[in-house]
Amino acid sequence: MGHVVSAIMQSKTFTPIKQIYLTQYVEWKNQYTFDGLRGLRYGQSFCNHFDIQDNLLYYTTWDVDQIEDYIMKQYIQTSCSKQ
């Protein structure tokens, strides 16, 4: 199973359906605490908030640093950030 996850993480062919501005991500991240207290996982909360269907992200039990790295690489648009 671990090699499947690694292959997905390293895949350069994945194109996200939705691009999220860094400012939007930071706003969500600041509000995540409430979802965490309700028992939602970090990736699960992210998917719910931004209406994203990404089973790897939604169901993962990675630590927050790994999930943030994945989110930044796959979904966050850092240039021309929305103000």
Write up this protein.
The chain is mainly α. The chain has one domain. It has helices at residues 2-10, 22-37, 42-50, 55-59, 64-74; strands spanning 20-21, 76-77. It has a two-stranded parallel ribbon with strand order 1-2.
List keywords for this structure.
single chain; two-stranded parallel sheet; about 80 residues; 2 strands; globular; mainly alpha; 5 helices
Residue stretches low in confidence (pLDDT < 50, at least 5 long) are none
**Structure summary, number of beta strands:** 2
Cα-atom Rg, whole angstroms?
13 Å
Q: What is the total domain count?
A: 1
What order do the helices and strands follow?
Answer: HEHHHHE
Helix-strand blueprint:
Layout: H1 2-10, E1 20-21, H2 22-37, H3 42-50, H4 55-59, H5 64-74, E2 76-77
Parallel strand pairs: 1-2
Helix pairs in contact: 2-3
